[in-house]
Write a structure and sequence with these properties.
Blueprint: H1 2-11, E1 30-33, H2 44-52, E2 60-63, H3 70-92, E3 97-102, H4 104-115, H5 117-121, E4 123-129, E5 143-147, E6 160-163, H6 171-174, H7 176-187, E7 201-210, E8 215-216, E9 220-227, E10 234-243, E11 248-255, E12 259-265, E13 271-276, E14 283-290, E15 310-318, E16 324-327, E17 330-331, E18 344-350, H8 365-368, E19 373-377, E20 383-391, E21 397-404, E22 410-416
Protein name: Lipase
Pfam families: AF_1763-like_C, Lipase_2, Lipase_C
GO molecular function, one term: hydrolase activity
Length: 419
């Protein structure tokens, strides 16, 4: 019986699901510009909320760039935005696009809108998410400015300015409160729903990129597995493809309620495993953030056959004083390694010095010095499973079990939903 169930589920993935034709939309295309060390992943939840309210997923895009080198790349970033907007207008028949940006992305977007009346004329609405103040509407475009915790005097003059003083910097992008304001501003009405409406069969696509440059991964193979909802262990593969160019993959048909592992395999390098909670509905903003072997923060992670090394991310900051994250029953967040002012969204947790000892009295300096990052000395034994339990600030718990791969041969990234 068990074998028959698996075969029936596997059959879902051999059906060719045609790409839906994109007719002239009732909604304008949406373009999101991320902030420092960011990617499309920051807008992942809001994109699915928009789609739950009738936006075709094909008209919601993100414009990604190499944020550490933004100052030298502005002309090419602007040119890329020109091309993206022109393509969206041509493919949809819309009169203009709606532009949204976060943090450093507001510097990029305000500069873009102010650089040319012709550019500003192709943007109907602009949303400035917890970023750069302004003394006038960027390019004269109607603007919604959303602000989180921090200086309450920040404004974009002439804009609709909305403040959420209890929300953190990245949370202002992903929160349901921000979504309500954004949707009303873009459409002139309240959203029908402000949650993600599940689909039985979803289509998932995205990119495997080098963090934080957003350059595509090449010379690797991506293998996608459906995994057990309770254990995270592999059930069967559903996709295999070589990565090249900008690291794009998909769209892949998946079960909206199931869990999946995305594995990046490279010759003579550790396999990088990515684990997600169920996608719920179609998602084109999946990002697999990795690095070249021996480069980036991954090269600073100490490894052994005895322990597993984890990277845990959430597009809502971890607050050591009020959030909880248990690894194998141990609460690992505290005011030292995840203070509210650090705005941590990415956690590196591994056995520093490979000594089998956990020490949470101070963060690991090389990781803590990075924007939005922290590092923790946590001994998680290699073995069948590691259990992650998250208590969300808004209430409720998320529980994920994933394989505890030995760090000498594997990297493990776990993505926690921000809602």
């Amino acid at each position: 019986m068990h074998r028959l169930v698996l075969l029936a589920l596997a059959a879902v993935f051999v059906v060719v699901v045609p790409s839906p034709a994109v007719a002239t939309p009732s909604h304008r295309p949406v373009v999101f510009v991320h902030g420092s060390a960011g990617s499309a992943q920051q807008f992942q939840t809001q994109a699915k909320r928009l789609a739950s309210n009738g936006y075709p997923i094909e008209i919601i895009e993100a414009h990604e760039y190499d944020s550490p080198n933004v100052a030298t790349l502005l002309p090419s970033i602007y040119a890329g935005l020109d091309e993206r907007i022109a393509r969206l207008l041509a493919s949809t028949g819309a009169d203009r696009v709606d532009l949204l940006a976060h943090s450093l992305g507001t510097f990029v977007s305000q500069g873009y809108l102010n650089s040319s009346p012709a550019r500003a004329a192709r943007v109907a609405h602009y949303v400035n998410l917890d970023g750069r103040p302004a003394t006038a509407l960027p390019g004269g475009v109607p603007t919604l400015a959303i602000w989180g915790e921090g200086d309450p005097a920040r404004t974009v003059a002439g804009a609709t300015n909305v403040s959420f003083p209890t929300q953190s910097h990245t949370q202002t992008v992903s929160s349901v409160e921000s979504f309500r304001e954004i949707f009303r501003f873009l459409t002139g009405r309240a959203p029908r729903v402000d949650r993600i409406v599940p689909q039985t069969i979803a289509r998932v696509s995205g990119r495997a990129v080098l963090f934080p440059s957003n350059v595509g991964v090449e010379g690797a193979t991506l293998v996608v597995y459906q995994v057990g909802s309770l254990t995270g262990h592999r059930l069967f593969p559903v996709h295999r493809a070589a990565l090249s160019g900008d690291g794009s993959f998909g769209p892949l048909p998946v079960l909206g309620s199931a869990r999946y592992e995305f594995a990046i395999e490279r010759p003579d390098a550790p396999t990088h495993h990515f684990y997600f909670q169920p996608f719920l509905r179609s998602d084109s903003f999946v990002r697999l953030l990795t690095s070249r072997p021996g480069e980036g923060l991954g090269a600073l992670v100490e490894t052994s056959d005895r322990h597993t090394a984890l990277t845990i991310s959430r597009q809502k900051e971890w607050w050591g004083g009020s959030d909880s994250l248990w690894l194998n029953g141990r609460q690992v967040l505290n005011e030292a390694n995840a203070p509210r002012t650090k705005r941590v969204i990415g956690i590196f947790a591994f056995d520093a010095a490979s000594d089998g000892v956990t020490d949470l009295t101070a963060p690991l300096p090389a990781f803590f010095s990075q924007t939005f990052m922290t590092g923790m000395d946590v001994f998680v034994p290699a073995g069948p499973l590691v259990s992650l339990v998250v208590r969300q600030r808004g209430g409720g718990y998320d529980i994920l079990n994933v394989p505890a791969w030995k760090s000498s041969e594997h990297r493990v990234s776990v993505n926690i939903d921000d809602f």
